[in-house]
Write a structure and sequence with these properties.
By secondary structure, the protein is an alpha+beta fold. The chain folds into three domains: 23-92, 2-Layer Sandwich (Double Stranded RNA Binding Domain), CATH 3.30.160; 119-214, Tyrosine recombinase, N-terminal domain (DNA polymerase, domain 1, Orthogonal Bundle); 228-424, Intergrase catalytic core (hpI Integrase, Chain A, Orthogonal Bundle). The chain has 17 helices and nine strands. The strands form three sheets. The chain has a four-stranded antiparallel sheet. Strands 7-8-9 form a three-stranded antiparallel sheet. It is elongated.
Amino acid sequence: MTSTPNGGIFGGIVIRATNYTPNFMLTDTRIRALKTKDKPYKVGDSNGLYIYVSKTGNKYWRQKYRINGKEKVLTHGEYPFVPLQQARSLKDAARGKIKQGIDPAIEKRAEKVSKLNNFESVARAWHDAQRSDWSNNHTQKVIISLEKDIFPTLGSIPINEITTPTLLDTLKTIEKRGAYEQARRVTQRCDSVFKYAIASGIASYNPAQDVQSALKKPKKQNYNSIEPKELPAFISALEELSAHPTVKLATQMLMLTFVRTSELIKAEWPEFDLDNRMWEIPAERMKKKRTHLVPLSDRVIEILEELRLYSGHRQYVFASPNKPRVPISNNTILQAIKRMGYAGKMTGHGFRHLASTSLNEMGYNPDAIEKQLAHVDGSTRGVYNKAELIEDRKKIMADWSNYLSGITENIIPISKPRNRNDLEA
C-alpha cells in the first residue's frame, strides 16, 4: 500500500497529516532558558534567523543569508530589547530586500552612517568639543538655540546634503519672528558646525558662509546703559531705594567691579582674599572659562565686611534674603534698577559699558581695561594670563571706586582729566 495525501500506511506505519512546527523554532520560554557556556553558541529559529549567546550570557539576534553568491550575517539587536516577534519581522523585511537584490547589511550600515553624520549629531559633537572653553551659561544657551531653531527642520538631514537655500529657509523662519539678532547668532553657530564637519572629513562645503548677505542685519544695540553724566542721580536713587541691604550692596558692587552679573551673584566667600585685596573668580563661572582676578578697592572691602553681617555664615556672599541657601538672581538686580526708575535705561551688564566708556575717555591703558573686563582676543598676544597688567588694573579699580565715591560726595566732577599724568600723579 502507498500513502495518500491525507494519510495512509507505509511499511506498516500509519502516517497522518498534522500542522507540524519544526522543533528548532524558538519561543520566549526557550530563549530565557538558554544558559551561559564555556564558548559562545547559536540556537536557530527559521530562515537563517538565530540567537547568538555570548560567553557572558548576552543574547543577540543574527540572520545568516546569501546574496550574490556570498554568505553574510545581519544583526538585529539584543534580546529581550528586541523581542522574538520583532526579530522575525526584521528577518522577513531583510529577506524581502534580498529578493530585490538589495544587501540589507550594506543598507543598514549606510543608514547608520547617515544618522551619525546628520546635522544634529555633528552639531552636538561640535558643542561637546567647545564646552571646556565656554561658561556653563553660554554652553546651555548655544545648545538651546540649536534645539529650538535648527534641529526640528535640519537635525535629521545628513550634514553633507544641506544646501544654502535649505539653511536660509530655516534661518528666515527665525527672522519672521522679528528675532534678527537670534538669527545672526544661530547662523554663526551653524557656520562653526559646518567648519567642524569639514575639518572632521564629514562635509566638504559650508552653506552658512553664503547666507549672511541674505539675512536682515539687526540694528547694533548695546546693553542699556546710562551716560556718565547721569551717575549722580543714579547713585542717589540707589541710596534712597527701599530694598534689602544685600540687593543694594550687590548693585553697588556691580557698579564698582563691573563684572558680569552672573559672575557676581554666585560669588562665594573663599574667593575673596581681603589681605591681598583680590577676588579670584573661578573659571567655571567666567564666560571664557578662564580664572579672572578683580583687585578690591577700599569701598568694595567695606561692602564685603558689611555683607558678612547678612551672609558670612552662608555659602554665597549675596545669599537670597528669602532663600538663603541660594544666591539672589539676575532679575533681583534688574527689578531693583526698575524700581529706581531706570527700567529700559540701565541693566546689570550696562555697568560694564559705562565703566569701559568712562575709563577709556579718562585715558587709562586700553589693554588693562580690556583685561579687567575679561575680554580676551584671539591673537597671539591674547594668550591669557590672569595676572596680566595687574598693577595697572589695581590702579584702575581703585581710581574708579574713588571716582564713584567722589560723585556721591560731590567732590570729583564728572569731567575728562586734562592728561594721563593727572591720573598717574
